Predict the structure of Pectinesterase.
Amino acid sequence: MQFKKYILVFIMILGFGAKAQNTYKNWSDIIRKNEASWFGTEEAKKIAENVLLYQRDIGGWPKNIQMQNELTPAEKKDLLVVKKTTKETTTDNGATTQEMLFMSKMYAQVKDERYKESFLKGLNYLLEAQYANGGWPQFYPLKKGYYTHITYNDDSMVRILNVMKEVGEETDFYSIKPSKEITAKAKTAFDKGIDCILKTQYKQNGVLTAWCAQHDEVTLQPAKARAYELPSLSGKESAKIVLLLMSIKNPSPEIITAVKSATAWFEKTKITNLEEKRVLNDAGKVIDKKMIPAQNAEPIWARFMELDTNEPFFSDRDGIKKKSLDEIGSERRNGYAWYTDEPKEVLKKYNSWAVKNGTRVLETTTSEKKKVNFLTVAQDGSGDFTKVQDAVYASPSFPYEKVTIFIKNGTYNEKIRIPEWNNNLILLGESKENTIITFDDNFSKINLGRNSTFYTSTLLVEADDFSASNLTIKNASGDKGQAIALSVTGNRVKITNCNILGNQDTLYLSGKNAKQYFKDCYIEGTTDFIFGGATALFENCVIHSIKSSYVTAASTPEGAAFGFVFKNCKLTAEPSANAVYLGRPWRIYAKTVFINCELGKQIKPEGWENWSKPDAEKNSFYAEYNNSGEGFQPKKRVSWSHQLTKKEVDTYSIENILKDTIANWFN
């Protein structure tokens, strides 16, 4: 009996697992998100039967059908009757193109010839539906009304052209390979479609801009669809059109001009002073949308803009234009997407595309480079660049807003410079451990004389208002003398959650009146591995000595209120490093203070060394407060060092140390 009970439980678990295998509610999600192997399951085969039933004999499918829903016998009977008609066959809302993709994924796993035939019928339907001018209507066979317009709406034509592109180029995207004759037709259809796109790009006072969601199939001019979808320039649909044009290898001069012009229009029409606020009910449904003023908001674009002025407008079902979203009724206000951020993808990819295709980086009318606010670096080619320095080169000079270079995991063997004109720049790694910037210059390798040290850095930051996080910055030359990993001469520089690795002279901090901030970092080295004249605050950092030597070598200028300040840091060392000094004065006015730090046993009792500079004992300022650990031996410290009082330590607040920085920059 007990054995049968276990068997029953096991069967119930298997049954539950089978039912829970697919949790996607939307048909499009089932196609896009399931693993390839899922398309060989019984569940997928069952859904495929529905998809085959919904396909009309002409080859197309209706839209907005949840194909995964189980059909009753009566529904199946009705669909068999409708199959012979052309009722509601369309490419709107992803219809037909997404079902073709489903059949391709099915055929890759199950060689059922019906799947192949279904895909090819769908492809033939798309080829038949194309106008002679290269465009596609929303419904085919043609349906009276605005449905006959060339339809970019909801990316319908772009989806079709992507199908033609994959088929025409004979890629492996689809598992089903059409005949050479059909492949040639797909290539011709794609070329005609691109020609249509170029001809429908709207000229505003003689300047190319973007596209409307619909264009008249005869005149090619912007056209009206539903009452609230008036002729306009579209911030949404135009984005996918440009991305399609940018995907074309060896683009023609006309395509290059189209992309440049549309990108300039996106830059011109972006909105950065508004944010959308959504009000939800208990069920999570949007019951109200409001646009609220904001400073430096993420850019968005209006769905509809005036053809001649680019001014956003909004319409209710009465078709009357309004200037703000709150002027239309709640039904249309909350039930339609009036703003979009899709053009951000175009702006993100544009510089890389422009360089690749031999055209200049986008410029303003005042000849200053346009802002490119987010660039991605990835060694596998999935980003905008494969090298960090190339992304820096593509970043705008003296931008008004922060520019982020996101660096995906990988080891980047580069020597990088952030020049002073690339201020407001952020280097953001995917992860501290796996996003590694490394190079192996050292004093002897550089061999430029006595100042060779300053040319050895892996990463040189000359720009103000720079920040880096989630990175490893490494000088990989080993124990071969002076070799800088990170050199910072900029002001208001913030480094968080980074590994800074080297040997002698790992971290150089300088710059006239410069102030720099390090938080949650791991810094390791040997001799003087944190050195320079800047004011620098280190919070919650691990400072690791590889050898018995000196942690700091400050060269604080005379009169500076602060030099190097370490708060809540932990000083560790390799087992062989048993005689480490907290610091020595590179210049006689050196200032270095350790507050609330844990000092390992490697720290020498005397703490500090004068570097054979008696004057440093009179002019430098070396101090501690409330440190702990075996290395904290205040009574054995050199006589010219200091133990701060509570009153004195109160002056070492982040506000005082970094008081000249931009408000809230270091929060």
